[in-house]
Please model this.
Amino acid sequence: MDLKVYAFTCGWLTVPTALLLEGETGSIKVPVPVYLIEHPKGYALFDSGLHVDTQTDADRRLGRLARYHTVHFFAGEEIASRLRAIDVAPDRIDYIINSHLHFDHCGGNAQLPNATLLLQRLEWEAAHDAELIERVYYDPHDYDHGHRVRAVNGEHDVFGDRSVVCIPTPGHTPGHQSLRVRIGKEDVVLTGDACYLRRTLEALHLPTAAFDREQMLASLRRLRALRDGGTVIITGHDPDMWQTIPQAPDLLTTIGGGTPDRSSSGSARRA
Model:
């Protein structure tokens, strides 16, 4: 059975453009993506989106971050509802592969009670370090829910067949990771916040804030090398690219030029 990948939009955020591209002015509205991976050995999510509380009281939920983020997130867009809409029960998710532990990437973890968190050990440890919680803008309310945790070091083959592989891309946070998935005959990398936008990759244009700018540049260069070798790169929050990404129940597929393509050739199995 081929790997199946589905993309969900779990809300949008309006942020200062400079937050993503240092020195830019104005604001930009960006998607909050979540991906479901259906493998013969189980279900995995890459990230989980926003916490459902941000639908009703984003300022309270986000605290100091509310100053920079306007949330557009409505009932039915949270990850549990997105999954149910394609007949996958939230309690059937085996793994939450968090790229990192910022609020828009792990806020939905609480809706997935039986999943194991799969993330880099550096990220898990950083998110429990009092100084780094303050400096890197972590909030334990988003990720400390008693899940089983599998903290890995470096590349990790999720299902043992190289079809889904975590790849370290630190810099945005201490232990950020991206995810390489094999879709058909092509490798696709879901970058998370290692690469916000196409412009980030093309110009190596860093955001205003990064935990380690040199590490982030090194991660971007690694993603560039993968792209130049034929890997399809799907950036983390690019609204223009997102318009080309098929949404569940359509499958995420790619065609020869590395361009995301829309297909309805399958849907997730019923839970």
Summary: DSSP finds nine helices and 14 strands in the chain. The first helix runs from residue 17 to 20.
